[in-house]
Each structure stands twice: as C-alpha cells, then as structure tokens.
Design brief:
single chain, 214 residues, alpha/beta, TIM Barrel, globular, binds D-xylitol-5-phosphate, binds zinc ion, EC 5.1.3.1, Ribulose-phosphate 3-epimerase, D-ribulose-phosphate 3-epimerase activity
Length: 214
C-alpha cells in the first residue's frame, strides 16, 4: 500500500491558493490538507470556511481539514458545508470529543482526532470505533517549517497497535521530510502531511514522489 501524501496549503502562496491547489492535485497529492487556526488554541490565525468553500471547485481530491480551534464543536457544521471530507478536531481543544466525532459522522464526513506531541495516545482508547483518521502532531501546532519531534515515531508505532485491523488512517503532521518518511512508514503511518517538504521548490511532483520513497 502506498502512503498517502496530503500537501498542506499553509506553505502555499496564499495570493494564488486556487492555482496552488490545482498544482498539487496535478502533482499527485492524494488529499489537500487545510490548516484552520484560531489565534487562541494555537498562536497563529489562518483561514476559515469561506476560503475552503472557494477552493472546493478547484479539485476533486478530498479536503483534509485540520481544525486547530477551541472550541471546535460549534463550527464543525460550517466546515462540513464548506466542502471538507475529513474533519479533524484536537483532543486538547474539546471537552466532549466523543460527541464531536459523532457529529462529524452524522454530517456524512470522516472523523479525525489529532494529538499534540505531549498528549498520550491513551485518549484514543474509547474512541477507536468512532474514528476514520488519527492525526499525530510531530510538531507543536501553529506553524509550518518546524523540526520533526523524534518521540512521535514511537507514538505512531503504539497507535498502530491500538488500531488493529480497523480501517483508520494514521496520519503524521509536522516536519515530515523524505529522510524521516521511511521510519514513519515502518512504524505504521498510512498518510503524511507535508507543507515545506512539498512547497520548498517548484517541483511539487518530484517532492511528493520523494516523500513516498519513489
Ligand atoms: C502545523 C500544521 C501543519 C503544517 C505542516 O501546525 O498543522 O499541517 O502545515 O508543515 P510542515 O510540513 O512544514 O511542518
Ligand atoms: Zn495540519
């Protein structure tokens, strides 16, 4: 099985977002990773549902929407309507994660849960059957271009064991490079988010292929 690559448009040229989304689609990106930040849960502010809605006609690829907002629950429906396919909330930003995950699925979307680097994986234990995706943060969320936090490789391996044969995607986000990718695949990751590693040069297709290890 080939690992999925979800280029993060946080590293794209914001003045040409539609064009950038089409370019990563043509370059073979599997999902479009969209980082939503509120300036409160994380120290940065990015985009909201209006921009996601405007980008929707530019690609048929799934939108992998990463909500770094607190609270998330009151806004989930807005992101579903804007065209998200995966909606991921943070374990640290929601008092009622179980309810949020149920809400995401009730809107016909795939439900994701993200864990910050310091959050232990046991928070997943009673939620596994509500999850379509687990997003392991391998940087502290807020910015692209940070360095990969090594301890998260072991967390990925532990989560892989917890997942068993459930059809849950195990995605890693932050500081992923072509050098680090093979170890994460070995640990059981099925998808990578990549911002700087994809957008660092104009050869998006080459950069995506390098992350896949081809
Ligand atoms: C960080 C975001 C990431 C970020 C990844 O808070 O969640 O998706 O864009 O960018 P790189 O790959 O540059 O670390
Ligand atoms: Zn992200």
């Amino acid at each position: 099985m080939t690992v999925k690559i979800a280029p993060s448009i946080l590293s794209a040229d914001f003045a040409r977002l539609g064009e950038e989304v089409r370019a990563i689609d043509n370059a073979g990106g599997d999902w479009i990773h969209i980082d939503v930040m509120d300036g409160h849960f994380v120290p940065n502010l990015t985009i909201g549902p209006a921009v996601i809605k405007a980008l929707r006609p530019h690609t048929a690829r799934p939108f992998d929407v990463h909500l770094m907002i607190n609270p998330a629950q009151p806004f989930i429906e807005d992101y579903a309507k804007a065209g998200a396919d995966y909606i991921t909330v943070h374990a640290e930003a929601d008092l009622h994660i179980d309810r949020s995950l149920q809400l995401i699925r009730s809107l016909g979307k795939k439900a994701g849960l993200s864990l910050n680097p310091a959050t232990p994986e046991n928070v997943l234990e009673y939620l596994l059957d509500r999850l379509d995706l687990i997003l392991v943060m391998s940087v502290n969320p807020g910015f692209g271009g940070q360095s990969f936090i090594e301890s998260q490789v072991e967390k990925v391996a532990r989560i892989r064991k917890m997942i068993g044969d459930r059809p849950i995607e195990l995605e890693v986000d932050g500081g992923v490079t072509a050098e680090i990718a093979p170890r994460l695949i070995k640990a059981g990751a099925t998808a990578f988010v990549a911002g700087s590693a994809v957008f660092k040069t104009p050869d998006y297709a080459g950069n995506i292929a390098a992350l896949r290890g081809i």
